Each structure stands twice: as C-alpha cells, then as structure tokens.
C-alpha cells in the first residue's frame, strides 16, 4: 500500500488522517516486512499491535505470526477495515484505546510466545512504553517505532543530556537494540520528524522486581525533575521533600556513596536504584 492507495482508501470511506491521534501511516509493504523481520516474529507467535492504522504492518505481521491482536482507537478506521475485509483471518481487530485497555488481559499467560510490535502513536509513546515495562513478565519482547528523539532518550547513557528517567527505568529492566532509522517519507501524512525502530527485550535477571518498579520510578522521576539542580535539591522539590529532611536525604546519598552535590544525569541506573531503596 503506497501513499496514493492510502489517500484513495481514506477518501473512499470519508476519512482523514487525524493529527490528534498521531496518525502517520506506514506506506511501504516491503518496509513493513523488514520491520517484522527485525522484530524477530516467528510462526508460533501471538503478536499484539498498538495502532492498526490502515493495516500495512498488521498484514506483514499476519504473514509471519500465528495470531495478531491489533488495537485501533479510531472508530472510522475500524469500520473501514471491517467493511473492506482488509485484514487476514488470523487478525483480531479490537476497537480500543491502548492507554485504557487491560493490556495484560489481551497478552494473557501461558506457553504461547507473545510479542508486541507497533508503530506507536508518537504523542503517547512514553506512557505506552511505561505500560510495556509492566508487561515484561508476560512479553517475550516488544519492538516499536518511535520518534527518533525518544529512541535517543531510551538508549542514552549517563552524562548525556538525553539521559533521564526513561533511560534509567529501561536500563534496570530490559536490553535495547536499535533496528533501523526511517525517513519521514516512509509515512503518510509525512511527519516533521524522523523515526527509529527499537527492539526491547526483558532482562533474564533484572536488577529490579516487578513489584518494586513503581517505588523506584517515583524516586527516579523526582531526581530528574529539576535537572539543573543538585540531586538533593531536586529530590527536595517534590513529594520526597515532604517525606524526608535534607539531612535524611544527604545521609541516604552518603550510604550509597553518592556526593551530595551530584546531579542525577551523572549517576548509573544501579546507583539510582540503590538510592531509591535507601529512601524507601
């Protein structure tokens, strides 16, 4: 499906690409097949896709996977895809908002290998990435298309300006590999940003338990909330400041071997994890 075919499909059904939903549709079938290959999809897999769009990636997934559950928030697109019988028989199309849906229920549990593969809507990519971390015990991996700036943040190392809470939480729980970069011309409408496909795999022995993630996240987000401030002052600025005195914060830092005037971006994920455990 190329850009002209996408325009014709939308026009036939009286639809427009919606900016408020971050709709930038993949336009290259061969590229979609390449993304499925990079995601490591195998014949026995069950795949969850967030954002069906016009089904270019969905159909490529269906050619390789045993079963695909694809989630689409736009009711007009859902009606159009069903009216045209545009998706293969092994695809289950669900009209839903992935931010509100019980994703764990759709992933399920059992012996079947479950992967998530998606061209994520860029305006909600960060919360969806966070939801994937909660599913890491159920997913074999997840491969996602992101705005390149977000991918840089995911892959950032300590000391860089892009290093932040997203980098830390992923560094403690998963491994990341960059698949490929895509130009704006791979999509319709053509976005103003470049895109990057990233594959994310849960660590076999993560540094952090599933029940601990929310507590650690709270401290890490507070640490990066005021990037220009020292770690003590950044932690004081939020809710942690109401729970811990300056002396308590400094003592926790000292027990972790962290200088009081250090800044969050200079610390390794393991150091921030140790600090979160001390404060808890």
Give a description of the structure:
This protein is of the alpha/beta class. Helices cover 41% and strands 18% of the residues. It is built from 13 helices and nine strands. The chain has helices at residues 3-12, 29-38, 56-64, 75-83, 103-107, 125-134, 148-155, 165-173, 213-224, 231-237, 239-243, 246-255, 269-279; strands spanning 25-26, 46-50, 67-72, 91-95, 114-119, 141-147, 174-182, 187-188, 195-202. The mean pLDDT is 92.
Summarize it.
By secondary structure, this protein is of the alpha/beta class. It has helices at residues 3-12, 29-38, 56-64, 75-83, 103-107, 125-134, 148-155, 165-173, 213-224, 231-237, 239-243, 246-255, 269-279; strands at residues 25-26, 46-50, 67-72, 91-95, 114-119, 141-147, 174-182, 187-188, 195-202.
Query: Runs with pLDDT <50, length 5+?
Result: none
Rg, nearest Å: 21 Å
What is the CATH homologous superfamily assignment of the largest domain? Vaccinia Virus protein VP39
Determine the strand fraction and express it as a percent band.
15-25%
**N-to-C series of helices and strands:** HEHEHEHEHEHEHHEEEHHHHH
Q: Give the count of helical stretches.
A: 13
Count of the separate structural domains: 2
